[in-house]
Amino acid sequence: MTKHDIRLIISDIDGTILDDQHQVDPQLREQIPLLKKENIPFVLASARSPLGMEPIARELGLGDNPLACYNGALVIKGDPQNYETIIEHPLDKKEIRTFLELVKTKFPSVSSNLYSGKDWIADRLDRWVQIEAEITGEQPFIQNVLLPVLDVLIPVHKLLLIDEAAVIQQLHAYLQTMDFPNTAFYLSKDNYLEVTHKEVSKEQALLEVAKHYQIPLEQVMTIGDNFNDLPMLRLAGLGVAMGNAPEAVKAEGTVVTKSNNQHGVAKAIEEYVLL
Prior knowledge:
Elements lengths: L7 E4 L14 H12 L4 E4 L4 H11 L6 E3 L4 E4 L6 E5 L4 H14 L4 E6 L2 E4 L4 H10 L4 E2 L15 E5 L2 H11 L7 E7 L2 E6 L4 H12 L6 E5 L5 H6 L2 E4 L5 H6 L2 E2 L7 H9 L3
Parallel strand pairs: 1-2, 1-12, 2-3, 7-8, 12-13, 13-14
Antiparallel strand pairs: 3-4, 4-5, 6-7, 6-9, 9-11, 10-11
């Protein structure tokens, strides 16, 4: 066991600090005051919205630490109901209009969800939306036609497309043949397709949060369990892959900890930070 000179921790949420029952690791909750005593901020970075992250941040007692929402498309500080924006990377509305029309025409069974700031707007209340609402504790606005939302002067930070895995993977493959120069598409689960601006990644979120605290990357520990966490695992001084991560993700972490059901984040903090 080696203590590293870590001054900032950035962690994913789902599959990382939450177990398979979507519960916060109680051992991690007990460590937060110890990290505060050492003046080591613990920052959450997730595909979730501000309101989807707020209950977890509150349960952990993170105070006004920044939240990197939508994988870094929106980095905020303060009350998620009335937050201060540190930085944002909204989607290109012209490309998103084309994209939504394409999905509606060629993949009509897909559930389309639009996120702007703290608002979640879904095109229908189907079983996929209900499952997502149960996981995040949020409730969407139902707008049967999403396109008019793009005409309102609001930034769109993320789209989430949900369906059976085979349909979503077919959609993902189809998008590789299309030209969306300002838009990125990636699978966060085998049946979840996330859509953000091309500049958005957890790597960029890491850079922006580290700059906010004026902490060099070699003194940052990042923790994650999936492919969208890889950029920040690679870039940080200490990239911790969860024991429940795919083998390809584990291979690129600096170290591998226990799984999300075995207090993996708490064990990594104990072993490499609070030793």
